[in-house]
Amino acid sequence: MTLEVRELDLYYGDAQALDKVSLSAEAGSVVAIVGANGAGKSSLIRAIAGIETPRAGSVRFKGEDITGLPSYRICDRGIGQVAEGRQVFPTLTVRENLEMGALLKRARPRLEATLAEVYGLFPRLRERAGQAAGTLSGGEQQMLAIGRCLMGQPELIMLDEPSLGLAPTVVQEVFQIVRRLNERGITIVLVEQNVAASLKLAARAYVLENGRIVMEGTGAELLADDRVRQAYLGL
Amino acid sequence: MRSLLEGIPRRSLAALAVAGVALLAAPAIADAYVLSVLILCLYFAYVGQAWNIMMGFAGQLSLGHSLYVGVGAYVSALLFVKFGVNPWIGALAAIAVCTALGLAIGVLAFRFGIAGVYFAILTIAFAEFTRIGFDHWQWAGASGGLFLPVEYRETSDVLTLRGSPAMFYYVMLAFTVGALALCRLLLASRLGYYWRAIREDAAAAEALGINAFGCKMAAVALSAALTALGGVFFAFYYNNLFPEQIFSIGRSIEIILGPIIGGIGTLIGPIVGAFLLTPLADSLSELMAWLGIDTPGVKHVFYGACLLVVVVFLPHGVWPPIARLLGLDGERTRRG
After folding, report:
1. Does B316 touch chain A (CB under 8 A)?
2. ipTM of the predicted structure?
């Protein structure tokens, strides 16, 4: 297992956000975490990334315990994160945004090579290299956020709602990109409200409700499950 | 040296050289009054630059920089008056104390997630209770003030920081140039990049693996240390310190007006802002006095008007458009 989360408890003050959440991701797989708003999906990602400190439980990455490490240490170990809401640096240019992604020790020496790879993956970013990131369209900003994350050469990427607020055609494009990243061997943890699309992609999927995992299985299993179909797919 | 000047367009280098020569020659031409205004300009340019490290580079708003000026001034002045410690050794002590203060505020704020406006309020609070503390500290002169022995002499002695206004002018000029060079190196360094990422979007910066806490602490510490040196200058130039004045919020605001009007986050903005505002405000006061109009608040009304005009018409400050106009914008001034 590349990522192994065991019985994670997270609190914001007295409010419990995660309740004994366990999940695992095999190397090179796509793991989807689905659930309604406020179910704790983003909290889970933030806890794994070290931005929030869990009260109990453990996170292991490639066999090593990374629970409670500061986020910059976790990044340096190869866990990348694309946070919700396309957090690009608006007044910096596209290229500068990408360079910012390669500030990690592990990524610095290969900056130019990685940049070429990212441009290969997102030709539009190359076209707009000198443009301020704030002037990009929503879809392009999402590409930039993903590209910037790739600049850090992560082995595992956590994507928080990458399709949020994008036009339907762009949403499709985003899912294609996720698939392509996975084909390159990157492990993906995908948090999505677009349940159908993410379950189709996922080797393993978890349903989160009120901070608890209430269901898990392969993507196909959950996609066929009546409760999932009723609650999340409106079928 | 090469990395310091690397990437600056030739035009800008020429402009810098002209400005440098003018500033070096100024004391030979200027009369006592003009020289005193120029010293004040340099002082505000310097502390504005120091403040700009926190706000302009790292995006942390401090409204209490008078704290570092005041503590820096008092530490060095007290060491000198009470124990006869040389001002430059006192300056080291002042820098150490202010850096520690800055780090203490930083730990409080950044560990406990106090950000934005709340951080600014915290900085005011520290300046205010330090003011009240000094107001009642009898040994340090309390509200009656602390006075340094004034010696009138013809010769200047930089080593003991006693001498003519021209000497103080050159000392402040050296500080200002030093701060400018330091800031340029900082902006081009990895830390400078980290700061920019944090300023733009702290959450995204952290997601990229930037140690936001450490970088913000570095900004506060550096800014406090540089500002402390400004305080040391203040003490030995004016020879008197009153808690009521030196720690006042008004002083903190005066410090930040230069960079805001000149251009937050730019290297030249704080200097341009200080050299614009200080002489204008001063000549306005003089003009009012000459006209026989007794309006003690006129300077502050003027500051307010300047702020209004700049915020409405030049939200990035006056320097970026000037730089563009003169073709000197090789310095990347994206934030304005």
Report:
1. no
2. 0.76
